[in-house]
Amino acid sequence: MSQLFQIASDGTVHLFGVRLVGVNQITARKLLLTLCFIAAIFVLSRILRALSGIFFKYGTRNQRIDFWVRQAISLAMTIAIVVGLVSVWFDNPQRLGTAFGFVTAGLAFALQKVVTAIAAYFVILRGKTFNVGDRIRMAGVRGDVIALGFIQTTIMEMGEPPAEQGDPPAMWVRSRQYTGRIVTITNDKIFDDPVYNYSREFPFIWEEMNIPISYKDDRGRAEQIIIDVAERHTVKQTEMGEDVLREMEKRYFMQRSEMKPRVYWRITDNWIEMTVRFITKTHGIRELKDAMSRDILKAFDEAGIGIASGTYEVVGFPPVKVEWAGPNGGGSAPQRRDIPDAVGRRQ
Q: Rounded to an integer, what distance in angstroms lies between the CA atom of residue 88 and that of residue 69?
């Protein structure tokens, strides 16, 4: 056994009489110290994450604080591992500079996407692009952010309203509700495509409903019913808070009158299209439209107002002549049969 594995007096290791380059007692101690250091950092990280989950478990605000605490823990542990490994293995500054040059060149060539994704991670945090819990559209995927890592962002995908059904990727859920698919996207996509954030800073969006009204119905009464239902179900200015309203007026130059429900008319060939525009929260839009549709239909029925629809009236068919060639295809005389038209007249 001693012939197979030997440690020379100078500390070098020999295997089958062959000296192993870079393997000696010093590197063995460094390797052992590295493993112990990484294990300690891992245990410390798990303990800190567990404490974070205990203290920030409930409430939307607590979830956001928990997210930032977890991100801080991940960054701190990563920096500690890098500093520790550099301190253990590169005790000579000249060797450190050489190794750093080789590592930098290798990363620039072989890990371009990874480096870009990590850089995008810091841009997301520093630039306040989005946060965990925000509803976004990123790289063609719509949904709520459920995790953010150094390289990837994880999104709980949601469906699309009918107006957006033609946009890729294909969806089978015809509203902004979860599809059940978990989508992971590399962070570097923020440099290539715009990121749409539905809920950051202003957690409300504008929505619309189109309702066709017949020309013969009471259009003024129909508009009043729609306005009443919208004001009853949608977000009121008092619910937004004075601070949010002031911030919106200051940052986006908006007037408070623009935040009230309003009905717009459009003349078409068949009906008056009434579009109600209102503000709602980013979540629960399908339930809101369902409740509004039920109340509008109920009020329309009570007022004798109907929903207009396209109809077609067929007034008749041209005469049809049928000839019979006989049972054997012989030359029996043609026979004519009268076919009644669509209104019951016989031609």
A: 28
